[in-house]
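Researcher: Here's a chain I'd like modeled. Treat it as a single chain, no partners, no ligands.
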Amino acid sequence: MLAASLHIPGTDRVLVNAPECQRLIEQMRATVPDVIRQAQRTLQERDRILAQAKEEPERIVARARERAAELLEEHDIVHQAQTRATQVLTEAEQTAQQMRGEADAYAVSVLQDLGSQLEQSMAQVRNGITALRAAHSEPPHAPPRS
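Model: Modeled as a single isolated chain. Structure tokens:
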């Protein structure tokens, strides 16, 4: 529009078509608020994306910390369970050893009693054999006279 306008010689001034200039001004007034609103929406969208971009790593880090805490707790629970299992196994081995010792002592006692009974029985057998041998070596008894 300025290029097609009439220049006033010796000045920087230009004669413009007033209705055309008014139309352009009105068009700019109508367009500029839309452009400003679009720029504001773009800025808001940019701010939202930036906030989301900031929140996402923070959320990931928070979740990673939570998971690390869970894993530590699980590790601690597993460690406690392993420690308790070792204690139970040790106690069971000690109890089994004690029971084996008691069973062996009982078996020895029973075998000693059995040995004593066998010795008594053998003594009775020997006495019986001795008595039988003595009875055979004695002269036969004469029947009583009548």
